[in-house]
Amino acid sequence: MSESTTPSAGRADATVLKFGGTSVADAAALQRVAGVVHDAQRGTRPVVVVSALAGGTDALLAAADAAASGDPKLMLPQLDALLERHAEIARGLARPESAKGIGTVLARARAEIADLLERVAAEPEHQPALRDEIASYGERLSAALLTAVLLAADVPARYVDARHCLITDETHGRATPLPNTEQRTRAELAPLLDRRLVPVLGGYIGATLEGVTTTLGRGGSDYSAALVGAALAAREIQIWTDVSGVLSADPRVVPGARPIPSLSYAEAAELAYFGAKVLHPKTIQPAMERDIPVRICNSHAPGDPGTVVTARGEVRAGAVKAIAHKTGITVLQINSTRMLGAYGFLRGLFEVFERHQTVVDVVTTSEVSVSLTVDDAGSLPAIVAELQALGTVAVESGRAIVCVVGEGLRITPGIAARVFATIADINVSLISQGASRVNLTFVVEETRVREAVLRLHEALFERQGVDLGAAAAAEELAS
Ligand code: ASP
Ligand code: MG
User: Fold this and answer.
1) 90 pLDDT exceeds 90?
2) 240 CA distance to ligand 2 centroid (A)?
3) Ligand 1 pocket, residue 265 CB under 6 Å
4) Is the CB–ligand 1 distance for residue 286 below 6 Å?
5) Lowest mean pLDDT, pick from 7-21, 66-80, 205-219, 317-331
6) Alpha-carbon span 332 to 353, nearest angstrom
7) What CATH number does the domain located at 12-242 have?
8) What is the mean pLDDT of residues 96-120?
9) Neighbours of 477 (CB within 10 A)
10) To test the ligand 1 pocket, which listed residue (19, 22, 50, 51) has its Cβ within 8 A of the most ligand atoms?
11) DSSP states along 99-163
């Protein structure tokens, strides 16, 4: 296993294009992807990272679950349907000879998966590794299919087995990439890029140093794209999805929500908690360390600028970028005079949550009380019982978190006053201005959260005439 470093290791002209499951859901979607990759060749050297076809990973893991409960054949019809979707797309979009090749690959995959499912049932001790092996077919097959579709669209695509690039530890289902990933990825991809080929690899999957298949955790393809981008020192990492970037609010609550042109890594990280459409901070980490912009693009509207996430973002006085919210929150308030002047108290308190593997989100403290929020109330009765040893505990359910996000908050005096004046008649608790100073977070009753978010969006975006798209005047303020 030699780790060759190519001399031309940096690929500053490479761009990683990652397509999620919905971008490769069917033939029409794949054709759009082919168009995007084809056009991308004009200004850059594309490297394609692709997810399993929509629903593919779910189907594969459901089959593994059924096998683990003793029925390895239960889900075979669903898997056949998944494989047939690949075949049908290949017949529609690939050249006849590659469609035939894909047919052979699919037939082999069917036999291998069926065999793996039998092993899941027979060898419970190997289940985690076998599950990853089974799940990996989703991305391996979608990458093979996309390669064939790209070739038919005159893109010089080349399938790459992602397991030769992403080297991870042995934590199946949630593996952590090892530093070797960087050299391996360069060694695999740089020669292809030098030959003007377009590498196509599946996201989400990797392998241990011994070559055992692993996965990075659900939704891990974005992370794969960032790791590949970092390894190549790419110019940009593009996450192609079905929305035109990160929106200024949840469009189901705020019809006037609009795409945010640019975010800083810190803003994106704050927003990550609130919505699946936003990148996970872990995803951005490899890009952030290399200062590589991450752009969220819409494969249904490739011309839209989307949202670009960079180190600095765009810092303008008064600029609030988004108003995020999350319902289903429980607030716990712990009061204890023992806290006064005592050290170690908070540690004991948080250890309770740690023991019950419950994530705490917003925290505020005074001398004798701590208020905090959790969104997973599963272990609440046990947690409350333990906390009662530390003080009196009040539980308020049916709460919501509202988070106003923007680097501009740091440099805008009076913004908090404006926020709270806008919702003066709504009860607000647990106010917290994050340590990063790019967010102002607070809790309201769930029944009033829509109203709060709508009014804040109107006051901070619409009524002020702050046009996020073309704020030329506001731009001047920044400099
Ligand atoms: N296909 C994997 C999943 O569904 C990874 C991804 O799509 O990002 O979780
Ligand atoms: Mg995803």
Assistant:
1) yes
2) 10
3) no
4) no
5) 7-21
6) 12
7) 3.40.1160.10
8) 98
9) 15
10) 51
11) HHHHHHHHHHHHHHHHHHHHHHHH-GGGHHHHHHHHHHHHHHHHHHHHHHHHHHTT--EEEE-GG
3 state DSSP class of 411: helix
pLDDT greater than 70 at residue 452: yes
| CATH number among 3.30.2130.10, 3.30.499.10, 3.40.50.150, 3.10.180.10, domain 322-478 | 3.30.2130.10
Distance between CA atoms of residues 257 and 134, nearest Å: 40
Q: Kindly tell me if the per-residue pLDDT of 221 is higher than 90.
A: yes
* 279 Cα–ligand 2 center, Å: 8
What distance separates the 2 farthest-apart alpha carbons in the chain?
Answer: 77
Dihedral sign for Cα 243, 246, 249, 255, please: negative
- Is ligand 1 within 6 A of the CB of residue 221? yes
Identify which of 204, 240, 282 to mutate to test ligand 1's pocket (most ligand atoms within 8 A of the CB).
204
Average pLDDT score over residue span 169-187: 97
Average pLDDT over the chain, rounded to an integer: 91
Where are the CATH 3.40.1160.10 domain residues in the chain?
12-242
Reference 226, options 312, 294, 126, 125; nearest CA is 294
CA of 454 to the centre of ligand 2 (A): 27
Question: What are 352-394's pLDDT values in tens digits?
Answer: 999 999 999 999 998 889 999 999 889 999 999 999 999 999 9
